[in-house]
Amino acid sequence: MKKTPDTNTTLENAGLSPEDQLLFSNARPRAYEPYPIKAIEDFANWARANSLWILAFGTGCCSIELRPLMTARFDASRFGVAGRPTPRQSSVFIIGGYVSVKTLKRIVRSYEQMQGPKFIIALGSCPANGGMYFDSYNTINQFDLYLPVDLYVTGCMPRPEALLGAILELQDDIKAGKCDGANRYVEHFDEYKANQKKVIKDWNMPDYNW
Amino acid sequence: MIAEWFGRIGNFSLTLLIVAVYGLLVGAFIERTIAKVQGRIGIPYRQPFINILKTFVKRTAVMHGIMFYLGPVFRLAGGIGTLAFIPVIYGSETFGNFSFAGDLFLVIYFMFFGQLGMALGAGESGHPYSAIGIARGLSQMTAYEVPFALAIISIVIQYDTLSITEIVAAQQGGWQNWTLFTNWVATLAAMLAFLGMTGYSPFDIFLAPQEIPIGPPTEFHSAYLSFLQTNRALFGATKLVLFMNLFFGGATGWVELMIKTLAIYMVAIVVGVAFPRFRVDQSIRFFFKIPTLVGIFSIIYVQMMFTS
């Protein structure tokens, strides 16, 4: 797998104190290209699509829909979906509903700790356009300004069927090689960071959480 | 000489492949069974294979240091090493592995080895939950090793040998010769230790998915995790084969092996779905009470019954 060369080697990490800067990596994330042989990449994508591990981080009220998804009535495990309690091992981040600024900081931290390829499903109307919290003082309105979203499921709140349908659609997209959010995030890293820093005022973490 | 060794290594590779695939399939079978009990359909049989493949083809990985890298390698080496010295099929030249006169000692050592390697690796990841998981896992391991070791000593006295092959040979000729029936006390102590070894409820505090995100492997991801997943299946199946050899008369064919190992595994599953989780101090106290007493009694029992 070829790695793209670094354009700019280090990050500033200006939010950290000088002592803390020594403790954190300041390397920039890099974009990863698919395997050179198409058949291998297709096979890898088939495996990625059929083994979606969801990060168990409910960011808002729509996360309540994740519970029936895993239990007897809808049982997503037959499609290879499983919950993972640690971001290191998960590959899908379901943004469950409204994202407050305080949560956004944690979402960014968790998303950056996930290992690529990683996918985001934005659940509910709130991440798309603010939904019923559109004029709230502490809720962001358009989630894909801050992190790359692969799939939106709108509704307030969407039924588990809709979420299950979204997962199946995500699987099709992954198999077709269309879900490249992790690389998109890296390629537009500075824009995403600028947007994040615009709303997160107490930025006391490294610029990229390795 | 060299050709013979290559032959044995080839045979062992075949055994390794079969046991690993069998371990993964058993894992899927158990998952599906639990799902059926809960009214779900459950994962497809191919799911464990896809999971390993997916973690292996992840595009990125973060390294925390040399020991972090070596942890999963040691873990897998522990699993392979354990299997290497256990005769899988009794009387089979191909699946006899590297069984020799003192293999029982080496096998017990290898079972420790992987866990210690994993502890060092997970410790270097620096994640507090890994450290908590390891502290709990190692204390629990220390506790269940006591009844297990006592049971092993008991059957070593009984059969007067340290060779697994000879222990299996002594149990041939009908079910009444199995250690389960000739020395049921040692079997009981070992099966109680087995519950702790498999890491199902009530002894799953060191993994504790809801409170300390899956414990020691919290930080392991990508290819590191695929090593751990492979080892989990391989080591699980290996432990089943070891217990089958020591207490349930071994196996003379693959079908017999599969029936017996599945039955042994079901003990842990049935206990697991029926009981809630122990705290680590409770599980240590449990192992130091009844199973240890049963283990001590097994040695007294074997002295009374088998030595004159």
Blueprint (SSEs and pairs):
The complex is a heterodimer of chains A (210) and B (308).
Chain A: H1 18-21, H2 38-49, E1 53-55, H3 66-70, E2 82-84, E3 92-96, H4 101-113, E4 119-123, H5 126-129, E5 151-153, H6 160-175, H7 181-187, H8 189-199
Parallel strand pairs in A: 1-2, 3-4, 4-5
Helix pairs in contact in A: 2-6
Chain B: H1 2-37, H2 47-56, H3 66-84, H4 103-124, H5 128-159, H6 164-170, H7 179-182, H8 184-198, H9 222-247, H10 254-274, H11 280-288, H12 290-306
Helix pairs in contact in B: 1-9, 1-10, 2-9, 3-4, 3-9, 4-5, 5-8, 5-11, 5-12, 8-10, 8-12, 9-10
Q: How would you describe the overall organization of this protein?
A:
The complex is a heterodimer of chains A (210) and B (308). With 210 residues, chain A is of the alpha/beta class. Chain A has a single domain (18-199), classed as Rossmann fold (3-Layer(aba) Sandwich), CATH 3.40.50. Helix content of chain A is 34%, strand content 9%. Chain A is built from eight helices and five strands; from the N terminus they run ααβαββαβαβααα. Chain A has helices at 18-21, 38-49, 66-70, 101-113, 126-129, 160-175, 181-187, 189-199, and strands at 53-55, 82-84, 92-96, 119-123, 151-153. In chain A, the strands form two sheets. Chain A has a three-stranded parallel β-sheet. A two-stranded parallel ribbon of chain A has the order 1-2. In chain A, helix 2 packs antiparallel against helix 6. The longest helix of chain A has 16 residues, at 160-175. Chain A is globular, with a radius of gyration of 17 Å. The two termini of chain A are 20 Å apart. Chain B has one domain (2-306). In chain B, helix 9 packs across helix 10 (254-274). The termini of chain B are far apart. Chain B is an all-alpha fold and 308 residues long. Chain B is built from twelve helices and no strands. Chain A binds chain B through residues 1, 32, 44, 47-48, 50-51, 71-72, 75, 77-78, 80, 84-86, 88-89, 91, 115-117, 182, 210, and chain B through 35, 38-44, 47, 50-51, 53-55, 57-62, 209-210, 213-214, 217-222, 225.
